[in-house]
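TOKENISED FOLD:
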Amino acid sequence: MSATLSVENVSVAYDDFLALKDASIAVAQGESFGLVGESGSGKSTLLRAVAGLAPVTGGTIRIHGESLHGSKRSKAFYRNVQMVFQDPYGSLHPRQTIDRLLIEPLAIHGIRDSDKRIARALDEVGLGNGFRFRYPHQLSGGQRQRVAIARALIVEPSILLLDEPTSALDASVQAEVLNLLEQIRRDRKLTFVMVSHDLGVVTHMCERLAVMRNGAVVERLTSGQLANADVQEDYTRNLMIASKGFVKA
């Protein structure tokens, strides 16, 4: 498999704490890949390491075959790789209108036709031009996350890093946003790496996944194997039992 994103033996350390230990994943072009595990397992740290938001102390990260060094990322990287965070309110500047929030990445990357691109981005995420001059506090949680997705998409990346993108939303809104993300992935032929504690979400959204524990990858599975409980590790079985409604204890 030719990997669009390759993480090879990557470690992340915060002072004396090793948050990620020789973790490796490979994600193909157009694939949706999941990272699951309990809180503190290292799944979000791995995503942040790719994004240049965590102190990488060892290993290699490659995007389209090009090696990334340390935590430094180029402007070209952020044109190609975008991240959607768990808390849409925390990731949107409260004193900027939606219009301003969407213009900013276009300005950073020198992309023109901002009016047309903003209108298209809002339409793509199911909002409309009427939301353009509102502030984040005037939107619901689901609408704010749609804006965060639009902001990530507006620079036309090929890879989206999704860190628990629906966990802060109500169940009905979660389903809407997940369906939106899946439609966008198909339409744009995007590559997803999705962190989630919800095994049902990962099984629905991802073709393959890695199970993480204490900063290390302990098992790699297809979504079909997970759905059929065809797993090797007791830790994975316990995750399945702990995931409400996924399997019966």
User: Anything to note?
Assistant: The radius of gyration is 18 Å. The chain has a mean pLDDT of 92.
